[in-house]
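Here is the promised in-class demo. Please do not try to memorize the tokens; focus on the logic of going from shape to residues.
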């Protein structure tokens, strides 16, 4: 069974940094695009950053220049380095990945359980 597990969230002051990790486990044949989403209280879930299997990236305008998405394909792990954090970055951050399990050889979209990021002013 394929799972995504996030880690690295927490409480940080404005201007600080955090690094989130998302590890995929299970019998995985391949992982295609991976992404970070976030959802603040009372708001819709929004895309923060996305990275393809080849390493191409794209970011929401609100985080460009402050956040960096990366992945280690050998470890089936994705990262989000968040610098110059602002109170408006406070949200639950979710990792998302398009994964092909060995058992089915079909692509499915998986979500992690979420990790809380709180930025105090």
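The designed amino acids, position by position:
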């Amino acid at each position: 069974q394929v799972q995504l597990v996030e880690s690295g969230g927490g409480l940080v002051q404005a201007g600080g940094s955090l690094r989130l990790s998302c590890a995929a486990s299970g019998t995985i044949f391949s992982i295609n695009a991976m992404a970070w989403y976030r959802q603040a209280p009372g708001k819709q879930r929004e895309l923060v950053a996305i990275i393809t299997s080849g390493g191409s990236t794209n970011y929401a305008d609100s985080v460009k220049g402050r956040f960096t998405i990366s992945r280690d394909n050998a470890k089936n792990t994705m990262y989000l380095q968040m610098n110059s954090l602002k109170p408006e970055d406070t949200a639950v951050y979710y990792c998302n990945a398009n994964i092909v399990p060995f058992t089915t050889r079909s692509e499915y979209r998986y979500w992690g359980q979420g990790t809380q990021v709180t930025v105090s002013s």
